[in-house]
Amino acid sequence: MAIVRPMTAVIAMIGMMSFVLLGVVGNDQAVADDKPKEAPGKKYDAWMTVKLVSSQQVLAHLTAGDFKKMGESARRMQFVHHLEQWLRDEDFKNQSGYKAQLHAFEFATNELVRHADDKNMDGSLKSFQLMTESCVRCHQLLRDPVE
Asked: Which fold has domain 4-28+43-143?
């Protein structure tokens, strides 16, 4: 069993890095230079960076009305989000607040992809707002855990 966890991590990291190189690093969209204010050295920084960059790209595509690229960025967030779940600590994953935000994020990104595919600006905007709120609430849990 001890071999399965590291192997899963290796496979997930290879998948993520391939995805990053193909999607985020090669993207010509401008991204803010500011780094998130999370504590340095956390093992989830790479995942969060990809999700942050992808969300910034969604906003850029929303303002440009580029539904195709908006959907691609939203799908990238979904993909990285699912990979990240394999590595999340079991104790943290089982917290009800985290589970609630996890479901809110999944629902919002699914809706964002659906509305982008339908070229629905109002639905895409509302989904982006919901997704952003779930990100902020989840990071509140990460920063200020409820005891």
From this structure: Four Helix Bundle (Hemerythrin (Met), subunit A) (1.20.120)
